[in-house]
Specification:
- Helix content is 61%, strand content 18%.
- With 96 residues, it is of the alpha+beta class.
- The protein folds into 2 domains: 2-41, 3-Layer(aba) Sandwich (YefM-like fold), CATH 3.40.1620; 45-86.
- Strands 1-2-3 form a 3-stranded mixed β-sheet.
- A hairpin with a 2-residue loop joins strand 2 (27-32) and strand 3.
- The model has no long low-confidence stretch (mean pLDDT 81).
Length: 96
């Protein structure tokens, strides 16, 4: 369960809130003028969130790789792109 606190309350009870987060596993949503602006969660919860986000990124990459694998004649398409670029003389290319 997430407990709602104001910024003023978070400031005045910061040590208590951190202790409750560490030892009781409580989570807090910090609100400014009634709108959520931040969260105070334990380090284990943060790691889980980061791991989930990382897994989603990996899943996206895997999906893209699978899509490329299913693409027919990919080698031919890539060679066509290179061939058309070699033939193109109107492109200004600067090599430093």
């Amino acid at each position: 369960m997430m407990l709602n606190i104001s910024i003023a309350e978070a400031k005045s009870k910061f040590s208590e809130i951190i202790a409750r987060t560490i030892y009781a596993g409580e989570r807090f949503i910090v609100r400014r003028r009634g709108k959520p602006v931040a969260a105070i969660v334990g380090i284990d919860d943060l790691r889980k969130i980061q791991l989930t986000n990382s897994s989603e990124d990996t899943g996206t990459l895997l999906a893209a790789a699978e899509a490329w694998a299913d693409f027919k004649d990919l080698d031919r398409v890539i060679e066509d792109i290179y061939r058309s670029r070699r033939k193109s003389t109107d492109r200004k290319v600067t090599i430093e």
